[in-house]
Design brief:
By secondary structure, the chain is of the alpha/beta class. It is built from nine helices and 14 strands. Keywords: ATP-binding, Carbohydrate metabolism, Kinase, Metal-binding, Nucleotide-binding, Transferase, Zinc. It catalyses: N-acetyl-D-glucosamine + ATP = N-acetyl-D-glucosamine 6-phosphate + ADP + H(+).
């Protein structure tokens, strides 16, 4: 038995995994953001609740492990930022520890138990507040040792004009320090930013999508520009990786007509032609980070035995 954790800035969620088909969520606890001993104690408490001794633990975290130093970048939980977290937790808990990025865990969950089942290469795309992704090939996560593979949301690649007819698009500043990243336009905040640029209107992504679905002219224009901007970098990602399915998670993945528009635009721009949907809604809608971490932990446990 292993225990998986989905570590977020506000809550820690746990789960017990005995096999790929036997993963049971546990409760959720507040995340101690600024106190590492309290963070460790929160994990200990969840482990103790199970009444069993796990053989290892696996964590999904909104951060990135440096593959060379094994140190974690996790700005929203200061007490673990910059730590060699796996080694620190192993010393504290006396158990083997595996850590993976939350988007990577999402991709792993979709490849193993979701929309990516039966596909050799699965690219999991996140269209949430921002943009992220993870890559799984032949059942293995490319970032098993940490790293940035799958991060299609960053890099100065957004087109300077988009839509039909084309309209000029600024190179918006990104939180990563660059300008013109997919992350600046591809998530919910990016959609809102585009609407403000195009129409000088401050609306939430929910309002924009609602108006688009009712045929409102300005919202329709915004969605046209949005799809044009996002489809090209996603098509390039698919060409480079050879993915044959792209499950999408995050809040915008719940808008199936939007995914259908994106899928149509992406399939028109890739080299390999598909007569079926390629960009599809994710299927592991409940705690994919927890499921992905569990699958990674189970694979690690099988390899070690």
């Amino acid at each position: 038995m292993i225990i998986s954790f989905d570590i977020g800035g506000s809550a820690i969620k746990g789960g017990i995994a005995r096999s790929e088909t036997d993963i049971v969520p546990l409760g959720r606890h507040p995340t101690p953001k600024d106190d590492f001993p309290a963070f460790v104690q929160a994990l200990r408490g969840i482990i103790a609740e199970t009444g069993e001794e796990p053989s290892r633990i696996a964590l999904s975290i909104a951060g990135v492990v440096d593959p060379d130093t094994q140190r974690l970048t996790c700005a929203n939980i200061p007490c673990i930022h910059g730590r060699a977290l796996a080694a620190d937790l192993e010393a504290e808990l006396g158990l083997p520890v595996l850590i993976a990025n939350d988007a990577d865990c999402f991709a792993m969950a979709e490849a193993g138990l979701g929309a990516g089942r039966g596909h050799r290469i699965v690219f999991g795309a996140i269209l949430g507040t921002g943009v992220g992704g993870g890559l799984v090939a032949d059942g293995r996560l490319v970032n098993e040792a940490g790293g940035f593979a799958g991060e299609w949301g960053h890099g100065p690649i957004i087109a300077s004009a988009a839509g039909n007819p084309p309209v000029a698009i600024p190179a918006y500043a990104c939180g990563c320090g660059q300008k013109g990243c997919v992350d600046t336009v591809g998530g919910a905040r990016g959609l809102e930013r585009l609407h403000k640029t195009l129409h000088n209107l401050d609306l939430s992504s929910e309002e924009i999508i609602g108006q688009w679905r009712h045929g409102e002219e300005k919202a329709t224009r915004t969605i046209d520009v949005y799809v044009d901007l996002v489809a090209s970098p996603l098509a390039l990602t698919i060409n480079i990786t050879g993915a044959t399915i792209v499950p999408v998670g995050g809040g915008l993945s719940n808008v199936e007509p939007l995914l259908a528009e994106l899928d149509h635009a992406v399939r028109a721009r890739i080299l390999r032609k598909f007569d079926r949907p390629l960009v599809v809604p994710s299927e592991c809608r409940i705690e994919p980070g927890l499921i992905g971490a569990a699958l990674l932990g189970l694979k690690a446990e099988a390899a070690a035995s």
